[in-house]
Description:
The chain has a domain at 9-13 and 41-52 and 120-325: 3-Layer(aba) Sandwich (UDP-N-acetylmuramoyl-L-alanine:D-glutamate ligase), CATH 3.40.1190. By secondary structure, it is an alpha/beta fold. The chain has ten helices and 13 strands. Helix 8 (260-274) packs antiparallel against helix 9. A hairpin with a 5-residue loop joins strand 11 (226-230) and strand 12. It has helices spanning 40-50, 65-76, 126-130, 147-160, 179-190, 200-207, 212-221, 260-274, 286-303, 316-329; strands at 9-12, 16-21, 33-38, 55-62, 80-87, 94-99, 105-110, 134-138, 164-168, 195-199, 226-230, 236-239, 244-247. The longest helix is centred in the last third of the chain and has 18 residues, at 286-303. The protein starts with 8 loop residues before the first strand and ends with a helix.
Amino acid sequence: MDGTRDLQVVTxxxxxxxxxxxxxxxxxxxFAFNRLPGGAAxxxxxGLARLGIRVGMIGKVGQxxxxxxxxxxxxxxxxxxxxxxFSKDAxxxxxxxxxxxxxxxxxxxxxxxxxxxQLCPGDxxxxxxxxxxxxxxxxxxxxxxxxxxxALRAMRLARRHDLLVTFDPNLRPSLWRSERDMKTxxxxxxxxxxxxxxxxxxxxxxxxxxxxxEGSLRLVQSGxxxxxxxxxxxxxxxxxRTRVGNVEGYEVVVKDTTGAGDGFLAGFLAYIVRHGxxxxxxxxxxxxxxxxxxxxxxxxxMVVTGLGAISSLPCDAAVSKFLTQQEQGNR
Length: 331
C-alpha cells in the first residue's frame, strides 16, 4: 500500500442499539436489558479503530436519541463518521437479544422500517471510498431497498478505486422478504467479493453443502477468492483457489457470543492492513495467512468473554498479551 490514503477501511451497513438481556432465558421472561451500541458494520468499525486502523463508516441512523448516542459512541472510538447520516423518516433500529446459559443468542428486531434501511445510493460518499484500501459490507444493508442499491453502489465504487471488498452475510432470515430472496441476493454479492466470512451454518446453507469443506469449495469455485468460516471455539476454516486448512481457536469462558464474528473480521482486516497484505492475499503463503487468522481467532475469543459486542472489543496490546499468554500456556 502506498500509504497516501486517509482511511484504511470503510464499512457500509447498520449501526443499531442492542438491548442485551441481563440474564439467560426467553425474551418474554426477561425483565432487564443492557443498552449497548451495536450493528455488524459499527462493530467492525470500532474493532478496527481499537486495533489501530483508520476506519470510517457509511450508514444511516434515526434523528433520535439512539441515533445521537450511536454517532457519539463511534466518534468517541475515533471512527470517521462523515458517512453516517441521520434519517428524519425512520427511527434507529433496535435489536433485543436473548442469551442462553452458554452465551448463544436469539434476536428480535424493531425495524419497520429502520433508519439503516433508508440509506440511498446518493448517500454514498465516493470520496470516503476512494480514500481507503478496503470496503467491508454487512448483509443487513441488503435486506431491502433503498439500502440494497446503496450497498451495491458502494461495491461498484470500490471496484472503480481498486479496493479489496470483504463481506459478512451475517444472515438474519426474519429480516428478509423470503429465504429464497435472502439466498439469491447473498450469493450474487459473494461472487463479486474478494473475501467472504461466514459461520458454519451459513456456508452449508448458502452453498447447499453437507459440510463446511464442501461448502467452502463450492463458494471458491463460484468466484470468491478467500472463504473464511468461523467455527466458534474450534477456530476457523479457510479456503483459497490453491490452499485449504483450519486454524485452531482458543478455549475461553463464554459470556456472550454477540459480536464474535465481527471481532474476528476486525482482527483479520487489521492484521492484513497493518502488514501490507491487502493487495497480496492471492499470493499469501499458508504460514502468513494462518498468522492473520490466528490473530482474528484471538480477537473473536476475547469478545465472547464480555457482555455485548462493542464493549468487549480489545485493543492491539490486549490481543498481543492474550496471544503471549496462550503461547506460554501451551509450552
